[in-house]
Structures are given as C-alpha cells and as structure tokens.
From TrEMBL:
This is Pyrin domain-containing protein. InterPro entries: DAPIN, DEATH-like_dom_sf. It comes from Channa argus. Residues 2-58 form the Pyrin domain. PROSITE patterns: DAPIN (PS50824).
Amino acid sequence: MMTVTERLLQTLEDLREEDFNKFKWYLWHKEALEGFQEIQKSRLEKATRLDTVDLMVQTHCINIVNVAKLVLVKINQNNLLENFSDISEPSELSVS
C-alpha cells in the first residue's frame, strides 16, 4: 500500500512542468490556500517534485491531502483527485 507521500509524489510526477509550477504557485499564496498555511516562496522557487513533497509534509502534515486536493482543483487537474479517493481513515494519513 502506498503512503500519502508516495501518492503525492506520484501525483506531482503526473503534472506537466507548467502545471507543476502552478501547483507550487498556489502553495505560496496564502489567500489561495483558503485557511491553510502557505510555504515560503523562496523555498518553493527551485524545489523539485521531491522537495515539494517534503515541504508539504513539513508544513501541512495531516492536512496534506486536503491541501493537495484544493490545489489540484485550482489548477484544473480534477482527474488526479482520484489518487487520494480511497483515503478516509485517519490511520491512512500516515506520511511516513
């Protein structure tokens, strides 16, 4: 069974470069995150997909799935939401 971080990485790898850059843009804009904490722009500017996953874990921890879903909707990548569709139990939110 894949962990949440593995699913997030897989999801980010499915994004084209332009969409990945949009994903990161939303992560550093507080008003776009609708109440979730933003990640410093300087930390995301040159972040790879792996770095972005690590930064999201550090910043969002148990909210990582909600943040990922929110941003995927904002960048019109609703098809990738299914990567997280079966996560419903708190025990499945393990990020390790």
